[in-house]
Amino acid sequence: MASKTLIEIVFHGRGGQGAVTAANLLATAAHQDGNKGVQAFPSFGAERRGAPVRAFARISGDEIHLRSEIYTPDIVIVLDESILDIVDVLKGLKPQGNILINTRKKPTDFPFSNQFHVATVDATGIAITHDIRVGGIPVVNTPILGSIPRILDRVTLASIQDAIRSKWEGKAELRERNVQATQDAYAKTEVNF
Fold first, then answer.
1. Which residues contact 65 (CB under 8 A, 6 or more apart)?
2. pLDDT of residue 1
């Protein structure tokens, strides 16, 4: 049975990387895993492909009545490491919060690894390996989803994979490439906690 504790997650990425889809798939998977309350929603502005974007997800064992943006997340997920240079992704992150970063670096390579729990995965490399691209650009949302069960016990890899299978139900080859990417990311995620 899912814990009743509310978990709040912020996705930071760039337009076209699939942050909004990732938040929606995570919410779907969390609900399948017995969490009664789930939400996923974007933060829209003048974003365009390549511009910084945010998406949000909430997971709870109880119904969720909040309707605001997330200001003090438990988890931050960074789909593009270069965002760290232009956006304060750590703003509001709860003490000992978790941050998952798409990078080739190790968790301890980040100066904030002594303050927060850091996990890393080369989601871009995994997307390229599995040919998950739009217009030739790697889309890292499904690979990064495969890493989430390594830092959050409220959602399973199997449920994430089921959510992906449902989303791309009529596209068998694309669906299975995305599912395999989650499997690879799960195995290749490094954590410092």
1. none
2. 43
